Each structure stands twice: as structure tokens, then as C-alpha cells.
């Protein structure tokens, strides 16, 4: 079992044991995920460029880890409720990106959004 599959199973069990599935629809989970991403953004929004490149402050690293974990857990739960194999979809997306942005011609160049 992959780590992602294990997290999915644990989140499903955590939810089931508390009868929280009734609250875990796509909209509610998406809004919860968005809120957690906002908390990550709040931690880094006013960092100067030099500080935003690495996380050297131990308290910031701890808080960032907590919030990123929340993002991951909500994302895993959202994918589970939607019936999406997140690991498989992520691997397919990475393959598409590798084809779309080959290293030759894209090294050190921000992708064009058009």
C-alpha cells in the first residue's frame, strides 16, 4: 500500500469513526481545503524574498508543516470522496507536464501561461 493510499484509508476511518461523512461533500471539502491553503498563504505573505526562499525560522517551519499537513489531509479526503485515485492522477499529470515542458528549452524559463 502506498503512503497516499494509507493516508486515504486512515482519513476515511477517522471520518467514519466520528460520523463526519455527512459533512464531507465536494463543496464543503473544497471550501475547507481553500481555507487551509489560505492559512499557508497567511504564514508567508509578508516574508521578504530572501526569507521566502527557505524556511530557517523553526517556529515558522513548525506552523508551515502543520498547515501543509492540513492541506494534504483535506486534499486526500476530497479525492477519496470524489472517487479519484490521487496518486495515479498526479503521476499522469506529471507525465503530461514532462512532455509539455521538456527540460531542453524550458530550463530556467517560467512557463508561458498562454
TrEMBL record:
Residue intervals of the NTP pyrophosphohydrolase MazG-like domain: 27-102
GO biological process, one term: DNA protection
Region annotation Disordered: where it falls in the sequence: 95-114
Keywords: Hydrolase
Pfam families recorded: MazG
Highest rank taxon of the organism: Bacteria
CDD domains referenced in this protein's UniProt entry, alphabetically: NTP-PPase_RS21-C6_like
Keyword Cytoplasm (UniProt): no
GO molecular function terms listed in the Swiss-Prot or TrEMBL record: dCTP diphosphatase activity
UniProt entry tagged with the keyword Hydrolase: yes
GO CC terms of this entry: cytosol
InterPro entries assigned to the protein according to its UniProt record, in alphabetical order: dCTP_Pyrophosphatase, DCTPP, MazG-like_dom
Coiled coil: none
Name of the protein described by the UniProt record: NTP pyrophosphatase (Non-canonical NTP hydrolase)
Amino acid at each position: 500500500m502506498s503512503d497516499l493510499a494509507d493516508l486515504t484509508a486512515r482519513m476515511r476511518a477517522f471520518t467514519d469513526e466520528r460520523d463526519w461523512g455527512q459533512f464531507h461533500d465536494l463543496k464543503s471539502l473544497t471550501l475547507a481545503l481553500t481555507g487551509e491553503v489560505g492559512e499557508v498563504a497567511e504564514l508567508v505573505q509578508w516574508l521578504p524574498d530572501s526569507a521566502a526562499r527557505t524556511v530557517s525560522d523553526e517556529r515558522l517551519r513548525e506552523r508551515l508543516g502543520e498547515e501543509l499537513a492540513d492541506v494534504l489531509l483535506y486534499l486526500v479526503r476530497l479525492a477519496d470522496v470524489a472517487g479519484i485515485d490521487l496518486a495515479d492522477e498526479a503521476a499522469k499529470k506529471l507525465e503530461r507536464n514532462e512532455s509539455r515542458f521538456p527540460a531542453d528549452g524550458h530550463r530556467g524559463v517560467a512557463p508561458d501561461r498562454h
